[in-house]
Amino acid sequence: AQTVTQSQPEMSVQEAETVTLSCTYDTSENNYYLFWYKQPPSRQMILVIRQEAYKQQNATENRFSVNFQKAAKSFSLKISDSQLGDTAMYFCAFTKLSGTYKYIFGTGTRLKVLA
Amino acid sequence: GAVVSQHPSRVICKSGTSVKIECRSLDFQATTMFWYRQFPKQSLMLMATSNEGSKATYEQGVEKDKFLINHASLTLSTLTVTSAHPEDSSFYICSPLDLQDNEQFFGPGTRLTVL
Questions:
Q1: Which of A9, A12, A37, A70 has its Cβ near the most Cβ atoms within 10 Å?
Q2: Which residues contact B37 (CB under 8 A, 6 or more apart)?
Q3: Strands B110-114 and B10-13, how do they pair?
C-alpha cells in the first residue's frame, strides 16, 4: 500500500524568505504522479505543482519548485520569495497510474507567512 | 484548471433530515468522481469513488446506506447524507477526475452543520 508522510505539522516563514516543506512517500510502483496542493482559508484546493515520476527534471511553477528524489522517495516543495497569500495548508499527494487512480494525501503542513 | 461547482456551499439542518450535495464539472466530462470529507485541521479523507452509470465504491468504514452517491451523468454527481446526525457535521468536497490530464479537480466544498 502507498503512504504519504508530511512530518511538519506547522511552519512559519518571514515574508520574502524561502521555505521548504517536506514530503516522503512509500510505493513499489514505478509510474506515478506527485502533487502539492494548497488549501487557503477558503478551503478551495488549488494545485500548486505536479511531478511525473518518469521525469528526472524537477517541476517548477514561478516561485514554487520541487526537489524530487525518486530513489529516496522524497518530494519537497520550495517556496521562494514567500508572500502573505501563501499562508495556507499544503498537502502532498500521490497517485499511481496503473490500476485504480486515486489520490493519497499526506496529513498536511500549515504554513504561515509572517509580515 | 477545470471549473467544478458544488452546491450548496453551506447547509445547516436538523438531526434526522437528509441533505443533498450537488457537484458539477462544468467544462469537462468526468467518468469518475471522488467524494471526500474533511474535519477541521485534518487532511482529506476519501469516502467513495463513483463511476458514471455504476454503483459507487465506498472506503472502509464509510456507510453506503448513509452516504448515498449518484453519478447519473458525466457532469453531475450527488452525495446525499441521509438521516444526518451531529457527528456528520463536516466539510464535504467533490473531486472529478479528468482522465485526459490524469488530474483530479476539486469543488469548493460544502460545509454541513447538523444541529
A1: A37
A2: B44, B45, B47, B90, B91, B92, B93
A3: parallel
Q: Kindly write down the DSSP assignment for every residue of chain A, as one continuous string.
A: --EEE---SEEEEETT--EEE--EEE-S-SSEEEEEEEE-TT---EEEEEEETT--SPPEETTEEEEEETTTTEEEEEE-S--GGG-EEEEEEEEESSSS---EE---EEEEEE-
CA distance A84 to chain B (A): 20
Residues A50-101 pLDDT 10s? 999 999 899 999 999 999 999 999 999 999 999 999 999 999 999 988 777 8
A5 touches chain B (CB under 8 A): no
Name residues 60-89 of chain A within 8 A of B (Cβ). none
